[in-house]
Amino acid sequence: MENRENNTSDAEIPSAELEEANGPVIFYNETVIDHFTNPRNVGEMDENESDGFALVGDPDCGDQMKLWVKVMEGKICDIKFKSFGCPGAIATSSMMTVLAKGKTIEEAKQLTDDDVVNALGGIPEHKKHCSLMGISALHAAIKDYNQKPISK
Ligand code: FES
Predict the structure, then answer these.
(1) Is ligand 1 within 6 A of the CB of residue 130?
(2) Residue with the nearest Cα to atom 2 of ligand 1?
(3) Residue 148's Cα: distance from chain center in Å?
(4) CB 3.0–4.6 Å: which of 10, 46, 86, 134 could bond 96 by disulfide?
């Protein structure tokens, strides 16, 4: 026999429970949502165009990103990324590219995931690990650039 007491519509669910059920989106601030819905510097570079490349992933969640950097006179003059990731990964990767573009290689190497999170005005505590992917990719792409036998 069907238990009709458990059949409730949204209108009968207390608002606090509804808020929780509607979940993660409400925990992101407007800047994070902006970078997720309109990520900056998305794209690819071909081998001839790029001076450094990285493919990184988070083994715990399976998210991945590719990053390309172009360097002129010791500065990151262009940067592109593609991400197969969660909203936190996309927003933090987008902000990382904004922070890295125009910086010297030495300045870009000093960027941290905290810089990215602070520039976004914060992200939920349980999503902070997502900000590591963009920074890891940046550091790996710089390493790739530094290992290339080209005149710098
Ligand atoms: Fe995988 Fe965010 S959950 S990077």
Answers:
(1) yes
(2) 130
(3) 26
(4) 134
Delineate the domains of the chain, giving CATH numbers in brackets: 27-147 (3.90.1010.10)
- State the virtual CA torsion across 74, 75, 80, 83 in degrees, nearest 10: 90
Considering the entire predicted model, what is its pTM?
0.82
pLDDT, tens digit (0-9, with 9 covering 90-100), for 68-127: 999 999 999 999 999 999 999 999 999 999 999 999 999 999 999 999 999 999 999 888
CA of 129 to the centre of ligand 1 (A): 7
Residues 6+ apart with CB under 8 A from 148: 51, 52
**Which atom of ligand 1 is nearest to 61's Cα?**
1
